[in-house]
Amino acid sequence: MKRHLVLVLALALAACNAVDLSYTRQTRVVRDAPITLSELNVPIQPKGRQYEPLTALFYPFWISQKTTYPAHLGRVFGRIVHQVFASERLFPRLIFDEKLAYSSPENAVETARRMGLDLVILGFVPYFVEGSTLSDTAVTIELRIYETKGGQLLVQMEQAARVEARMPNDFVYFVQETRLPDSPLYLAIQAIARDMAVPLKSWLPGLTRRPVFASNIGEITRALSVPGNGARANGVNGGLDAQARSELERELAAQGRSVALKVEFDVDKATIRPESFPLLDSLGQALAGPELAGKRVEILGHTDADASQEYNLKLSRARAQAVADYLVTKCRIPAGLIRTEGFGKSRPIAPNDTPENKQLNRRVEVRLEG
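The structure corresponding to this sequence follows.
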């Protein structure tokens, strides 16, 4: 009986990890080694929020510690952090150039400036040890971000991560072992990158996931009736790993059911062009249909980035209100069911570099509340 109780205890200690039960020898309880992160130190960061998306050049990391093949390791370390930042969609354009080699902040700023980019991201590794699956792994990363216009240091962050190998603990009836991951250094750097992305998210507007564009009543109804639009998101995140894909799906579900419409307005005005009337009529019919009747909706206005944030914010609000007014007066949708908001140029879904991409950013989004 006592042995059975001990085995139950072993299972509880194991949580979601592996248990090798045995009545003829000691039971093995295997736990994955955790990644221990130090507190993220951010001595330099911007004040306020950046409303216009910024482009960036990402350099291979500079390995300060003496080691074999530092240039190769710098490319590997930089690529890991770049992949995390790319999956977080912090920048509309984030270039990682493996051919570059760090020499000084001034040269890096000048290189990014010549490429027409707003920022340059530099990474430094003062210390690391790769224990693989045999011993401890540890790494410290410092990240600096400079703006290219004047060369000012905007962001400085530093953090350390550690994955420790531990001796087995013998509890007589079972032994508890710690299992090291196959690539502890990779996971440690990835964990640091995710932590560093948090303050960057609070500063940068980032890119909104590309919504579903609809052109008729059937497409509008389906988009607003199916929670999350998650299946449609797979086309824009095919390069993400399983965890990043799962995080994206949760984000999309939290955003609610939404659809984007290519509503045409007069230049610099909130006057809806007649060619967009059929599209808005379809929207009105969908909102009055059996699937959506009585549902509360948000009308969200977005612009491209060709003018100031203040100007675009005012214009996007006016255009969202123009669509709401059309739905109320022409389609008999109750005004109490509609809320409007404008985001200006702060939520692009494409870089502001071509007429086609600008048109994608100039959109009206309809979102079902709740």
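Residues 4-16, 228-241, 247-252 have pLDDT under 50 and may be disordered.
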